[in-house]
Amino acid sequence: MTTSTTNANSLLAIDIGTTSTRALLFDVVDGQYRFLVDGTAPSTAGAPFFNIGEGVRRAIDDLAALTGRRLIDDHENLIMPSLSDNSGVDALVATMSAGDPLRVIAVGLLEDVTLASAQRLAATTYAQVADTIKLNDRRQTADRINTVLRIRPDLVIVAGGTDNGASQSVLDLIEAVGLASYLSPESQTPHILFAGNQEIQKEVSSALKGIGKLHIAPNIRPTLNLEDISPAQGELTSIFKIIRQAQIGGVNELVGWAKGNLSPTAVAFSRVIRFLSKKYDPDKGVLGVDVGSQSTMVAAAFNGKETLRVYPYLGVGTGSVETLQKSTLTGITRWLRFDISEDVVRNYIYNKAAHPHSLPVTKEELAIEQALARQALLLAVKNSLSDFPPNIPRPALNILPWVEPIIAAGSVISKAPSSGQALLILLDGIQPTGITTVVVDQNNLSPALGAAARINPLLTVQIIESSTFLNLGTIIAPVGKARFGTPILRVRMTNRAGVVTTREIKYGTLEVLPVKMGEKVRLHLRPLHQFDIGMGRPGKAGEVQAVGGAAGIVIDARGRPLYFSPDPNRRLKLAQKWHHVITRKI
Amino acid sequence: MLAPVRHISPLTLIQRERVLPVSGQVIARQGQAVSPNDVVAECILAPRYFMLNIAEGLNLTPERADKLLQCQKGDNVSKGDMIAGPAGVFQRVVRTPYSGRVKLTGEGKVLIEAIVSPFELKAGFDGKVKRIIPDWGVVIETRGALIQGMWGNGKAAYGLVQTMLKDPADELTVDQVNISVRGAIVIGGYCQDPQVLESAAKAPIKGLILGSMSSALLPLAEKMTFPIIILDGFGQIPMNSIAYKLLTTTTKDRDISLHAQAYQSSKGNRPEIIVSLPSLGLIEPLLETDAFSSGQKVYLVNKSYTSQTGIIEHFLAKPFMFPSGIIAPAAVIRLDNNDLVKVPLASLETFGEKTNMETY
How confident is the model at residue B316 (pLDDT cuts 50, 70, 90)? Predict the structure, then answer.
């Protein structure tokens, strides 16, 4: 290893995605941490390399070519720490989402209690629950053994009972898991994560001694009414790393370079959301979404308490078929602003799944991909609502609670041809409520910042505060019920020059206030007919300072949840109208 | 820039791993000549266990029941064998309802592994075993034509072909799939009629190769017991000219192997057709990794030009904005019909043929 002669604190973040591997460089410029540039290469976790190293090297080479900075020495090693000639970096962190989702069996006593918690824990990483085992599932021990052997899980998560609660029942469930592990060839023995009754940890360890790869975590359901999966997430992250090191070549080396700091991308992303929730209005949460080729993730945090869900087969590329299968074809086509037959849409989706790297060349092709993104977001956010704390302020059940800001990532959003298109995907898919700000992580920095926070929190704070995210716009989305065309909101906008404009917003409309990017205005909002804009109660008026985003300030009065006309022609015309409204130049 | 690769070649060296899904036993020997239906390895795919509660059966405590065991770990037992007892006044015994092997005993229970038929991994095509992968499988090598597709229904077959194609854009119709194609691997163009698949199943045919198919037929295609490979895509797409030429000439009167495995780009699995051919001399394998270069033949996957092939004329100096508004690195391609079109590099595949061109 070359020795350091500098005090610089440069950091290299490597992100291994399903499609692309990126190398992001951060360094101190004029006394502040800055994101400088990133290098990109196709990911090589899969065929024909089955080794992430090739993709990592190419991404670093791309970065080196862009910066003129030597990062790899003559022996093909990363130069770390940095040298006086500005070569190398001082630290490296890594995030990873590539690889097949972990195959998981969730074990718990009661379906709606501990088993549900075990499944929620699994959902915080790139995993798919292939089967569950519970107290009353009628299978005998031998059948449970056969299930585990047939599925060959990477991981078994065991939850139950509460602390000082059920013990023998839990040990009975573990019997089948232990026997299956004993009977499996060594190469197929699953990892076992016990996150149940702490009182029986010793018995569990003793029962599985020498026959399983056992990991212990704090009880994710310490009482019937309390679920706390955060402490177990750390152990799950460690298991994820161990499994990937065994499954995919090159991960070992990367973990070595990162001195162990390799996180699942979703977990790192979630850290940033949690940090932001402590920075912003404590009465509102912060929401983060990322729509990828294979998976979609939803991370939220309410006053520091986070929730995270990864949907491994809900995406717009390799995951596009599953997005279709989890909806209906109409669920995708209802978003289109072109008259495209269902056959053409279906064919496109299946072709896209086979060629996820291919790009939409025509407006119609792009519209289909953006429709997929909307539907993936809608399904992911809807399924995540039940994870949010029950006592947070929200306008109604089954719609998004008040959150601000909303951070969005994923190429289908960050590389949309216009800010208006990106914003409309998010408004349609997420359907925010009340007053919020929507920002795009256009350089997809959040996972890198989340990973960096563990070793250099100052870097993370300074980058986030340096306006690295693109503000798409302030959104005002009143919640309530009215007939279409009924005025539901009066807006009085005063700009810095003191010019006042007023508008009356009708239910069912989408309107853009022509406020330029960065321009500050004062908005007086008076909801009518008991509509709620998050001022404390339905009908309550109030004043807010707002900043124009890339798409201005948008008032989304189309209703929550969004209503779709049963008439396909009417739906088409509305989609065209909304697109036109939001993509007009300000 | 790394390029996705699709192999379509009239003659190349083909090496394929034939690997069990779980570890097992390799039966073939290194150097052995194999035919498609030869078993090269086998394993127990999903072991089945059953547990006998001998304490309950003998009406004794677990400790006392263990003392009356008539078998031990590792014993082979047959259906009806006494495995515990006799006990009590009525001389109670416990017999095994299945044949198998005793895996574990203790605490008043006996765990028995039932005898199940092993999963047999077949060679899949004519060739020679090049290498053994201990406990997992073999690498088989052959020389011949190779045609890769983009979708398969997971089945495999080997047999003679019968082509219904006179033009790459032909549609396969139900009147073409009749008793006359019974037992054959049928080559068709586009298929959109579910009755075609149903007639094919009734005939029955051995396999089906299509240029394209309506995605509405996918649920039915997945259920078919014969392999189906789609070469170019979903929707009405003419078969690509290179595959069309090969399938209508090289495969004539030959047995071909059809492996309609699902396309998984991450694993490198593509549905493919292998036609083993006699040949002498040095033949090189196609490249598994490739980079784009001027003058290179490529395959287009974007919707407007799917299945068309062409030559890279040159790369655009800057990323290009397409009508969709997407900006991406692109190349100018001269299609086989001499049209010049701009295509994103991300929507191109190469054929893995070695060139001496400077790469992009």
Answer: very high
Q: Predicted ipTM?
A: 0.93
Is B263 in Cβ contact with A415 (below 8 Å)? no
pLDDT given for residue A3 in this prediction: 38
What is the tens place of the pLDDT at every residue in A422-461?
A: 999 999 999 999 999 999 999 999 999 999 999 999 999 9
Q: Kindly write down the DSSP assignment for every residue of B269-335, as one continuous string.
A: B--EEEEE----S--PBPPSSEE-BTT-EEEE-SGGGTT-EEEEEEE-SS-EE-TTS-EE-EEEEEE
The three-state secondary structure class of B154 is coil
Residue A551: φ, ψ to 5°: -110, 15
For residue A363, the chain B residue with the least C-alpha distance is B324
From B85's Cα to the closest Cα of chain A, the distance in A is 22
Q: What rounded mean pLDDT belongs to chain A?
A: 93
Residue A249 pLDDT: 95
Which residue of chain B comes nearest to A294, CA vs CA? B266
Distance CA A238, CA A32 (A): 32
Residue with tokens 């017999």: B95
Q: Where are the domains of chain A?
A: 11-96, 102-247, 267-583
DSSP labels, B83-111: EEEEETTTTEEEE-SS-EEEEEEETTEEE
Decide if A46 and B267 are in contact by the 8 Å CB cutoff.
Answer: yes
Which site among B326, B327, B343, B350 would you substitute to test the A interface, given the most A Cβ atoms closer than 10 Å to its Cβ? B326
Question: Do residue B147 and residue B272 come from a single domain?
Answer: yes
For the domain made up of A102-247, the CATH class stated in words is: alpha beta
Query: Which tokens sit at B245?
Result: 């030429």
List the Cα angle B113/B115/B116 in 5-degree steps.
115
A365's tokens: 């092709």
Domain that includes residue B104, residue range: 49-114
- The reply to whether residue A366 touches residue B215, judged by beta carbons under 8 angstroms, is no
Give the C-alpha distances (Å, rounded to integers) separating A327 from A340, A371, A375, A379: 18, 12, 8, 8
Q: How many domains does chain B have?
A: 3
Q: Is the pTM of this model over 0.80?
A: yes
CB A472 within 8 A of CB A541: no
In angstroms, the separation between the Cα of residue A104 and the nearest Cα of chain B is 17
**CA dist list (Å): B349 to A358, B258, B288, B308:** 10, 22, 12, 11
Quick: pLDDT tens for B319-334. Answer: 999 999 999 999 999 9
Helix (H) or strand (E) holding B147: strand B137-148
